[in-house]
Amino acid sequence: MRKLIGPFSEVVSFEEAPLKGPMKDEQLGIIANGGILVSEGIIEQVGDFESMAKEFSSTDIEEVTEASVALPGLIDCHTHICFAGTRSKDFAMRNAGISYLEIAKQGGGIWDSVTQTREASEDILKQNVVMRADKLLSRGVTTIEVKSGYGLSIEDELKMLRAIAKAGKKTKADLVSTCLAAHIKPKDFIGTHAQYLEYMAKNLFPLLKSEGLTNRIDAFIEDEAFSSEVVDSYFKSARMMDFDITVHADQFHVGGSKVAVEHGALSADHLEASGEEEIALLAQSEVVAVALPGATLGLGCDFTPARKILDAGGCVAIASDWNPGSAPMGNLLTQASILATFQKMSTAEVLAGVTYRAAHALGLKDRGKLNKGQLADLAVFPTNDTREILYQQGELLPFKVYKGGIVI
User: Fold this and answer.
1) What percent of the chain has pLDDT over 70?
2) Closest CA to 10 of 45, 48, 42, 59
3) What is the mean pLDDT of the chain?
4) Residue 30 near residue 11, CB atoms below 8 Å
5) Of 282, 306, 333, 380, which is the most exposed, with the fewest CB atoms less than 10 Å away?
6) Closest residue by Cα to residue 77 from 142, 172, 164
7) Cβ atoms 78, 290 nearer than 8 A
8) CATH 2.30.40.10 boundaries in the chain
């Protein structure tokens, strides 16, 4: 079915916008009084609405009568929304001056979420994912990456990834699953960190492939998790089985970004501790640097040096990191607008970071821009000025969200 949607006060097309490096707001590719021609869920043409209405006079028109800015559907390329329970105790302890790593040593942190998630049924986890995905969808997020990593056993990692797969059939958002079995070494595994990763690679990876549960492998490279050295063979095993790689990198200490570059990862996420050497390394690579301002707000640490990475020529995406511990907010636009303030990012750089640059972090080439051949995923905001979206810091919600050209 073919239809023309519009007129929109502004259509943010990102026509010819760059994948890497700094951006000026002129590169948003804004089309005033724009229309979007959609056929079978795919964008066929974007341009002046009145001209297109005349050219395609026999086509159905879905009229937009309100002031409206059409963005590509937002993409949250790093979340942990498959979990059970809460970590409010951790938040209170951090605010009382106890460090993230000390809380973990006292039985809080990631292991606390592992315990609560293991106790939850697959159906409960599925319901939790659907609930959180639909909340993101109401905020204009049409594609969501979802990690496992609170299972940390063969059985429980499979439970989480199966729950994510089933949730994907119950929400209109597209869910992209990632296996984060290398989150931390579980306390109930008898053996070294290296032995745990070898065990998971040998026994879990084939099951992920046979069930088609994910094509993405992640690892947390950090003092409380896994060293660069032990992760090396784990990622080599993943590569041999044609998994894509992504990395929790440089959150508290450096080293992870180098591993991401060496293994040709799609993205290196966090990067709050990245210095000049890591910034240069990332900028010279094809690895997307994913900033997670929600973790900064939750932990009180530095922001990802997004400005420096962009100025060095890197690609920066922005994600919510929605998780029960360090980033419980989950509001992508609020976090992105705050990052912009502290890192002095242009509107174009921020919106690119939550659309087509985020798509690149997931290896997706069919979304993130409002161009011919892209998915007709739209987030339509009730304003006639694109700048209002970040200015209102997440308070301005879309009044229409389209998935494949259909209002959902």
Assistant:
1) 100
2) 48
3) 97
4) yes
5) 380
6) 142
7) yes
8) 2-72+368-407
**Which residue carries 């009382």 as its tokens?**
96
Tell me which amino acid residue 262 is: E
Residue 347 in contact with residue 387, Cβ under 8 Å? yes
- The residue written with tokens 């079978």 in the block is 40
Residue 44 has pLDDT above 90, yes or no: yes
- Beta strands, E only, 183-323: 216-220, 244-249, 267-270, 288-291, 316-318
CATH architecture of the domain 75-361 equals Alpha-Beta Barrel (3.20)
Examine the pLDDT at 340 and tell me if it is beyond 80: yes
Closest C-alpha among 123, 238, 138 to residue 179: 238
Distances (CA, A) of 379 to 11, 27, 138, 140, 270: 10, 19, 9, 5, 26
* Whether pLDDT at 100 is above 80: no
9: its two tokens: 């006060």
Helix-then-strand count for the chain, H and E: 17, 16
Residue carrying the six token digits 């007129």: 7
Number of other residues whose CB lies within 10 A of the CB of residue 317: 28
pLDDT of the residue at 104 = 79
Of all residues in the chain, what percent carry a pLDDT higher than 90?
A: 95
The third-level CATH classification (topology) of the domain covering 2-72+368-407 is Urease, subunit C; domain 1 (2.30.40)
Phi-psi map region of 42: left, alpha, beta (phi>0 left; psi -120 to 50 alpha): beta
Cα-trace Rg, the chain: 21
**Cα gap 333→380, rounded to integer Å:** 14
Detail the DSSP E strand segments found in 210-295. 216-220, 244-249, 267-270, 288-291
User: pLDDT tens digits, residue range 181-204?
Assistant: 999 999 999 999 999 999 999 999
